[in-house]
User: Fold these one by one.
Assistant:
Number 1:
Amino acid sequence: MKKSKFITVVTLALVAVLSSVSVAFAATWSSTAQYGNWSNGGYTVYNNVWGSGAGAQSIWANSYSNWGVWAQHPNTGGIKSYPNSTREIGLKLSALKSVSSSFNVTVPSSGAAFESAYDIWAGNNNAYEIMLWMNYAGDVKPIADNWSSAGNPIASFTNVSIGGHTWNVYKGNNGSNAVFSFVRTGNTNSGTVDILAIMNWIKGKSWFGDETLNRVQFGFEITSSPAGLDFITNSYSVSYSQ
């Protein structure tokens, strides 16, 4: 390699390292702790590395609305983490007039298995989990009661238009609670979701009753990202009225 070309390569590499370092130091909060968390504006941002066989993950946040993680999880099965921003609600469905949320994310274009997803908890002792998959890639599958001979989950309902999006809906149980997964029929990195409409649809199917909406979480359920990749929430908010 010619000396001038070598110097150029080294310089570019150094610039990239310094740029990533400056971003990390510019953030209002950051953590490498497994369950590192930070409260801001009525929300809590969580690193939440909970799965077995997880690799390294660091989180940063400028606010509950603008945060991200760098994750390097091995290319093995099973969810490794769910970094997220959480808003507590604590009201029954009958007491709510509206619950909606907006989000905008930047996610890897390749090299990862993950979902950008809402995780919504309801009922006594979080008996019900509602997941809204907005964007997903790689070998990830929702929990379901029924599976095909090819090993794919079978939806309870398909092409359901509710809450501003169209979904395939899966009903299942993870051993601790009932899980209702709404998997968007096409990926999106931004949008607004009418969460109350979705929960009332579930109630209309008699899958649960007038439950308490405990909390709304949004983040990235990461299974693998072996090269080390960035998952960024550019903006996110939850609003509700009684």
Number 2:
Amino acid sequence: MDKWECLACGYIYDPAVGDPDNGVPAGTRFEDLPYDWVCPECGADKAMFEKLDE
């Protein structure tokens, strides 16, 4: 699964980890995050994330 980086603060969303502090279980693809999910570090919306090339 692809990792995504917040362009505002550099936070990396890793689907293998999810975002458990905000109710997103491990294994959740970025594309499957709720519409209103925001970066847990800076509050930027999903539009501010870019897929990382691995």
Number 3:
Amino acid sequence: MKIKMKMPLWLKRLPIKWKLMLGAALLIFLLFTSYNFAQYLVLKQWMLNQEKDAIQVTMGQVQDYLQTKAQSSESLLAEDTRAYMQKIIGKNQMIRIIDQQGTPILTVSQHFETNWVDPQPVTAQQLVDFTRVEDHLLIYRSPVTQSSWIGTIEIANNLETFDHFNQTLLWVMIIGGVLAIFVSGVSGLALARQFMRPIRALDSAIRSVKQKGLEERVANIENGDELSRLAQLFNDLMNQLAISFRQQQQFVEDASHELRTPITILEGHLSLLNRWGKTDPIVLDESLDASLQEVRRLKGIVQELLTLTKLESQSSMESQESVLVEPVLRQTIQRVKALHPDFEFKVDAAGISDVQLHIHALHLEQILLIVLDNAVKYSAENKVIIIRTSCQKDELAIFVQDHGIGIPEEELPYVFERFYRVDKARNREIGGTGLGLSIARQFVRNYQGDISMTSIEDKGTTVVIKFPIQRHTLT
């Protein structure tokens, strides 16, 4: 049966630093108390054993002396017996010899009241530890036999010094425990504040983000621990969020710009038809043709946006089948050549006849069509497109080079972004939606490849597509 312990509500509501301080103080208290209690018990028992050993040694000395007396037939009441007893007796101690009836024969004491201990004859050694009122006494009795009589030796110790030392030790441990708890509490609070510094910085940064926007960051924390890494992770996350929001904002602006043009054209032609084009066959035909063209353009933009969104939702793609690259490459080039018979396509695909990729053939074809279509669109008078391949140990590279208008170097990092156009006015005349290269890049990335572009303005552009490869063994 499980017992669930509920944390008090006031403890739940405490700040974390106070919880850490209380936890540290409680832990130190438990450890210190357990250790001190065990140490106190061990020391007390050890000291009591020392007292017992000392009283047994004294008993042995008295017994040896009385045995010597018995051998010399000297009286136990002789003065030298009392003198010997006074010599070996310790502080807060009593030595007493009694007969068989319990009558004291000889008593020697030092700072010890003899009436504290009642005479008691014994037939066997007896060690008694008891407390009388406020006095802690240790009594050792042992039988003694002489030629003429039988009696008992009693040695009693008042453990006043022993008890006083134990009390002092106990108080020292209690005071030390209190000081340890205080020091641990203060130290725990200081450590908690240190540990909470990155969390407070995170809290402040989150509040600032809520009030001021995504540009706020946590101050750099050089602790090198998990909390500093958490702060760095928060900064990285905010950087990614800021980039994502900027890209989203840019996408909305670009999409609005791209969609506004065909919608405006459609609105203009429909207004024209509504006013006087209904009865004019020439105006009607021109407006319908232009409207259909803009509808197709809208449809193309929407379709490419859906394709790009679908691709970005997939971090990777896997094809169960492999495709040979060379046949797909040559078939795609033939399709583009049929559409643009005035262009010359120079192909150098040596060394890739046995190269295959884990990619859907349609996806590879779509990537090549996008790149080749861009090469054709942005070529000027020099209508020569060069396609060549390079095969490394585990990587295939496809180069598509044109001799067209080129791209300024400062704009190369942005050419793969959605709707990005180097010269929007000129590109609108050329056609296209500005999404082709974004789709191609996402396709390539989803197959663990890479696509890049180099260009010289007014001289041409080269696109490089790289994929990991798998060699095909011909049989």
